[in-house]
Write a structure and sequence with these properties.
mainly alpha; Cytochrome C3; two-stranded antiparallel ribbon; 2 strands; globular
């Protein structure tokens, strides 16, 4: 990788990490622990709409996810930050997982894992916590 590309990658990482919430993980000591899962309607384009991707009603509060809790439970990064069609390891799920089908994908991933391991929330208001 060229020096200029490496500098650009570093700058993007600093901007991304600076925008994250408090806390660190054992794997990444940057402050990336608690993040907000991107709204599944955020990246829907006109082309997506023409292809039949429907927006959700967006009636629930956004989900905050604690990386450290998942890391401590043994969840590997690639479970969520998968590689398929994601060469840059996009950190916003809704770039690909859009609208109602994206919502189903995220719910199935999270809730099925929580239910299978008998750890973590499985009810709506346990993840979608109202803002105070």
């Amino acid at each position: 990788m060229s020096k200029s590309k490496l500098c650009l990658v570093g700058a993007v990482a600093v901007i991304f990490l600076a925008g994250c919430s408090q806390g660190t993980t054992n794997i990444n000591t940057s402050p990336t622990d608690v993040v907000t899962v991107t709204d599944v309607n955020k990246f829907i384009t006109d082309t997506d709409k023409q292809a039949g991707i429907n927006a959700t009603m967006n009636a629930m509060d956004p989900v905050k996810l604690a990386h450290k809790k998942h890391e401590d439970a043994g969840v590997k990064c690639v479970i969520c930050h998968h590689k398929q069609g994601n060469d840059d390891r996009i950190k916003q799920c809704a770039v690909c997982h859009k609208g109602a089908s994206g919502e189903d994908t995220l719910h199935n991933l999270c809730i099925s894992c929580h239910a299978k391991t008998k750890q973590g929330p499985t009810l709506c208001n346990e993840c979608h916590i109202a803002k105070e």
